[in-house]
Amino acid sequence: MRNLARTVAIGLALALAATGTVSAADFSKYVAMGDSLTAGFASGGLMVNYQKDSYPAILARQFGMTSFQQPTVSDPGIPSVMILQALRLTSQGVSPVIVPKSSSTGAPTNATLQGPYNNLGIPGAKVNDLLTKTGNIQRLAAGQSTAATVMYDLILRDNTTTAIQQAIGAGGTFYTVWIGNNDVLGAVTTGVALDGVTLTPAATFQTQYATLLGALKQNRPGAAIMVANIPAVTAIPFLTTIKPYLINPANGAKIPLIGEQGLLTENDYVTLGASSLIAQGIGVPTAAGGTGRPLPEGSFDPATGTLTPGVILRAAEVAAIKARHAELNSIIANVAAQVGAKVFDVNSLFGSILANGYTVGGVKLTAAFLTGGIFSYDGVHVQNLGNALLATEMIKFINAAFGASIPEVNLRQYLMGAASATSVLAGTTQFSLAAWQNLLATTVPELVSSDNPAVPGGLKLEVAVGGGAAQ
Q1: Cis peptide leading into 76, omega within 30 of 0?
Q2: Tell me, what DSSP letter sits at residue 23?
Q3: Which of 74, 267, 285, 465 is deepest in the core (most CB within 10 A)?
Q4: Is residue 275 situated within a structural domain?
Q5: CA dist., res. 65 & res. 20, Å (int)
Q6: Element (DSSP H or E) covering residue 263
Q7: Pick from 184, 205, 162, 149: which is nearest to 446 by CA?
Q8: 360-383, pLDDT tens digit by residue?
Q9: Is residue 269 part of a domain?
Q10: Assigned domain for 121 exists
Q11: Dihedral over Cα of 255, 375, 315, 457: its sign
């Protein structure tokens, strides 16, 4: 089990030859692998109020499992979850102000569990991380975890085995694998689309993904496997809520915002990270009452390994992200077919929601930030209602693909008190810099190492605005 290289070499060779299909599945021991979307991470943090309704936890309840173990964290979460602090009136309408709930963090509440968790979703993880990284719960208990290690310390714990090794060791009869989101998502949250830094090269992803599924298939040949592909990261509220222009309330004319490379066009994108800067007049022309200082566009210095995140993605960068997203989803489909895994097309599901919404009990849910009911306060991850929606669509797929009869989720119970289903004008949201920094620490943990020598490459994160440090 500990000899990953040998496991992978044998597993990949055998698994790629296994092209048979699974006609039935045993759901008595369900194990989930993935990243923050699997972990139940929402509103910028991992916290039990969201974890209890992670889509794997919901699936497990529908499967009839009496015990489904997760690395639960007490309020306010790790990092602290975001909350709606205030509603302010602005010239653009009602402006929600979103900030971390606390400067402190929660604590593990299930850290002494013997053996692996059923939910091995690790926020911030890329495909390769599930193959190579370990975690040490003692480091977390001693307060020595960093942004790059905290989730591994919390979830993997034993300082010895990786996520794929723990998943195999858990002896699952049914596995879900939803990984790859962070292999493209970092380009959106940092505003820097750069191959090999925030975008995993396709050839690298091919090798890593085949290794992951190959090892799982070889070591758990009797288990059924469902994988999910990557939803379009360029269609999440974090990137689509703030427009690249303001509206002149006097005449309705559009006023382009200013970036470090000049005025933005309507084909460019601005992230939620820009919202609190825009509220200070940064990125707003002086003629429109702003400072005239540009919004940061982000950069990477290979000489020093420093990533300076920005809040703008130009049209060409978005096109590059979309192209890589398509490549990675093609790889997922091909590798899954080779090992006999079924592919749940979450990309098409979210594309349909984006285009048409999703109706539950006469209520239309959408992908809109705050008002849509699906996404949480961070604009990247779904909230409880969104996870329930995912779970019920997964069950429909599982029933069809594996000849099962799992009962669907009662979505009506999630409609009441949805965590971020407000009715304010989300387009003028003020997403605090602290909230953005917390999100960066999760989505690109390897780049937020500060001066931590334990992080390969010693990559650093700096945030600068208009020539000065952001406050």
Answers
A1: yes
A2: S
A3: 465
A4: no
A5: 27
A6: strand 262-263
A7: 149
A8: 888 899 999 888 899 999 999 999
A9: no
A10: yes
A11: positive
